[in-house]
Amino acid sequence: MSGPGPDRVSRVGTKSTKGTNSETRILLYYRFTRIADPTAVMLWQRTLCDSLGLRGRIIISHHGINGTVGGSLTAVKQYIRRTREYPGFHDMEFKWSPGSAEDFPKLSVKVRDEIVSFGAADELRVDEHGVVGGGTHLSPAEVNDLVEQKRDTGNDVVFFDGRNAMEAQIGRFRGAVVPDVDTTHDFLRELESGKYDDLKNRPVVTYCTGGIRCEVLSSLMRNRGFTDVYQIDGGIVRYGEQFGDSGLWEGSLYVFDKRMHMEFSEDAASLGTCVHCGTATHTFHNCANGECRDMILLCETCADTPSTAHCGKQACATTVS
Ligand SMILES: [Zn+2]
Ligand SMILES: [Zn+2]
Asked: Taking every annotated instance into account, which residue ranges of this chain make up the domain Rhodanese (predicted)?
């Protein structure tokens, strides 16, 4: 699940949508490749999506494309075929997901400085093969092998969470380091803070939902002296599809759609706890104070009780009561 704007936390949607229709699909995709004229690609993509009746969000930059679109099965197939005609996108992978155009309010196709906002547009280097100087790509099985192999050398693998700290509250790799970030923009500050300097000579496996954030993050880490950096192909999603809850992943996966979280099996560990009473939960809620943008973990009881349906900050508690 690596649609545009993973650094942006959506409010919980209230719109009800119909069940999955077998005639419609959502596509999720990204590709790092040099795009000389992002505006031309944006206009072409906008016209293409309009003509096919697709809705969703697409971001294009000099470094590539990141999109999520939904529509009829025929339309999304056409979209893939036409999009792959662009040389830089010819081998782009598309992840299929249940859903339709109705899951998006409209079509948005935009040019930005970055397809994932790390605030590192001038630093990131891409060529026709993708990001230059990123971490070594590992398949899920290779992640497990690396952990075994490094354990034998006495220099254990460290998992490094490439998501917003909030997402890690309900699930993360075993023993992972979770940087103190509210948005991906905070990573540069964190990496340069000195807090993680002890990891510079350790094997570090970065991970995020679908892999896109680690493409950038792992290259920023290598540029800052982290010497042995890896990333998981397909991110947590692919690792979980392969190993479920019997591998090194623990808990629920935060997802950027109305589901809010997903589990890989019935055995998923429950890592999150209600901010008010400590009951196990993996359900995020908007703070009851409409002015507050915080999303917090609340148990059902606290969420249903007006006096506790807030994030815990004094200002919000006062506003709500
Ligand atoms: Zn509670
Ligand atoms: Zn609040």
From this structure: 153-248
Separation between Cα atoms, residue 66 and residue 58, nearest integer Å: 6
Q: Enumerate residues with CB within 5 Å of ligand 1 (an ion).
A: 274, 276-277, 279, 299, 302
How far is Cα 188 from Cα 126, in angstroms, rounded to an integer?
19
Distance, in Å, from the CA atom of 221 to the CA atom of 4, rounded to the nearest integer, reads 22
How many angstroms is it from 289 CA to the middle of ligand 2? 6
Domains and CATH numbers, the chain: 24-115 (3.30.70.100), 130-251 (3.40.250.10), 272-320 (no CATH)
What's at 61, amino acid-wise? S
How many beta carbons lie within 10 A of that of residue 194, not counting itself? 8
Residue 64 has pLDDT above 70, yes or no: yes
Spacing of C-alpha 225 from chain mean position = 24
CA–centroid distance, 277 to ligand 1, in Å, is 4
Distance 182 CA to ligand 1 centre (A): 23
pLDDT tens readout for residues 223-264: 999 999 999 999 999 999 999 999 999 999 998 877 789 999
Q: Which of 102, 41, 52, 115 is nearest to 80 (CA)?
A: 52
Q: What is the pLDDT of residues 275-312, one digit of tens each?
A: 999 999 999 999 999 999 889 999 999 999 989 999 99
- Give the environment of ion ligand 2: residues with CB less than 5 A: 287, 289, 292, 294, 311, 313, 316
Q: Which residues are designated catalytic? A: 208
Q: Would you call 36 exposed, middle or buried from its count of C-beta atoms within 10 A (0-12, 13-18, 19+)?
A: exposed
**314 Cα–ligand 1 center, Å:** 17
* CA–CA distance, 183 with 117 (Å, rounded to integer): 9
DSSP 91: T
